């Protein structure tokens, strides 16, 4: 058996989601493996909740008494089970970034550090934990995804933990660390000779024929809800308050839109006070369809062919692009893009000031943060949160040639002394150069 065809059991006592709802026309559907409004308008489906039921079940205290993972917010997630797949995903550090703030002329800057998310060191572990828990409930035994890299890592790892069969699809030209970091879990890996948008198109066809649970296709409504936890955690970690401004990377635009939904839900059930939060998005210049639409004042996205080192966010035809655009505009935020050279500088800046090694997507976010700060588009007193979504050890080739080298010495004190002297001379020269 691969797919449950009948509707799921009536929701258990604690289930708080009521079904699926079209984001465009409002048509409702049973909570099955379905992502498109096929009866009416072909818009995307989203999970709908009974917020009165959530309000009755949840307080700050019940959340704090829950697991130290995304599952402390289970009432806001689209699963029925009391035993979700919990591999310790979520509750990553929210770091006060004082040295980076000073460099950028800001005062209240925080880094939400999903470079150390469990188990595969990217924010994708959040969405996959939710999608695979739901996949299991719906009776799927084989799970799959169309990935830009991190999603394949997460799907393969969490499927292994849950004992699900797994077949993932990636563009063939991904970074070595992303490919190895998938293969180690022993799924079937299809390296497609094409870009992500072609991989995604192929997967839509496979989803129609195979009856597999594709986390970001037929399970997408459940999957994308996992990103709300990036909003919930920041609110809780700030002492049950919303920030003034967030900066996050945009690939499909889903993560960005769901952080917004997470904040709105916390307001709706009374866990935080309502206040305006500005949403600013980050893209790589070599794949910036959402940023281009923002700058040109368009409310539609023109797809592009990606060409950037920021492969994890290189989606040329972003499914949730128009929703991200809308959120940036209505919250008085902005969307900006940066060059590959600026992305590398962003990776180095975060590492040197805060001790966090992020991948290219995080470099994009930091470079955009810097650009906005320099342009006066971030008020220095605003509580600003920059979302770091992935780990630099997975994209080492991006910084090769742009960082220093070790000083090779003999195992002798005088060899060390000579090298130390040389290093200091070099540092002094570099320092003088920065002064001219
Ligand atoms: C997938 C991904 C994103 C963006 O995800 P969307 O929800 O598609 O916008 C950002 N950062 C990293 C590291 C990712 O892997
Ligand atoms: Zn519809």
From TrEMBL:
Q: Which SUPFAM superfamilies does the record associate with it?
A: Tryptophan synthase beta subunit-like PLP-dependent enzymes
Originating organism = Vasconcelosia minhoensis LEGE 07310
GO molecular function, one example?
Answer: threonine deaminase activity
Protein name (record): Threonine synthase
Q: Does the keyword Lyase apply?
A: yes
Location of N6-(pyridoxal phosphate)lysine modifications? 124
Cofactor(s) listed: pyridoxal 5'-phosphate
The major lineage groups are: Bacteria, Bacillati, Cyanobacteriota, Cyanophyceae, Nodosilineales
* Residue span(s) of domain Tryptophan synthase beta chain-like PALP: 88-390
Keyword Lyase annotated: yes
- GO-annotated biological processes: isoleucine biosynthetic process; L-serine catabolic process; L-threonine catabolic process; threonine biosynthetic process
**Pfam family for this entry, one:** PALP
- E.C. numbers: 4.2.3.1
Alphabetically sorted, this entry's keywords are: Lyase, Pyridoxal phosphate
The UniProt similarity line reads: Belongs to the threonine synthase family.
